[in-house]
């Protein structure tokens, strides 16, 4: 079952596709309706986790780039160091 299998039709009646047949949730037995609700909640949680992972990756990328920039700034010789080395030659 994929995310596309759980949809709303034009009349906004929720349905699920089972074996290529669209079954309205209201036509399912009580247990089937409860499972449908769980599937909806799980799909929403999955979407939220995906967004959280994207935000985490963006934060990791930012701090990784920042630490590289700090290292490069520290390891590059300053103008004073360059002046001192040319005077010693």
Describe the protein:
By secondary structure, the chain is of the alpha+beta class. It has one domain (3-88). It is built from two helices and three strands, in the order E-E-E-H-H. The chain has helices at 30-75, 79-88; strands spanning 6-8, 14-18, 21-24. It has a three-stranded antiparallel sheet, with helices on one face. A hairpin with a 5-residue loop joins strand 1 (6-8) and strand 2. The longest helix is centred in the middle third of the chain and has 46 residues, at 30-75. The chain is rod-shaped and about 90 Å long.
Provide a brief overview of the structure.
The chain has 89 residues and is an alpha+beta fold.
Would you tell me the structural class of the helices and strands? alpha+beta
Separation, N- and C-terminal Cα atoms: 74 Å
Per DSSP, the total helix count is 2
Whole-number average pLDDT? 87
Number of separate domains: 1
Strands in their spatial order, largest beta sheet = 1-2-3
Element-level helix/strand string: EEEHH
Query: How is the biggest beta sheet arranged?
Result: 3 strands, antiparallel
The residue fraction in helices comes out at 55-70%
* DSSP strand tally: 3
Model regions low in confidence, pLDDT < 50 over at least 5 residues:
none
Radius of gyration: 29 Å
CA-based shape? rod-shaped
Strand content: 5-15%
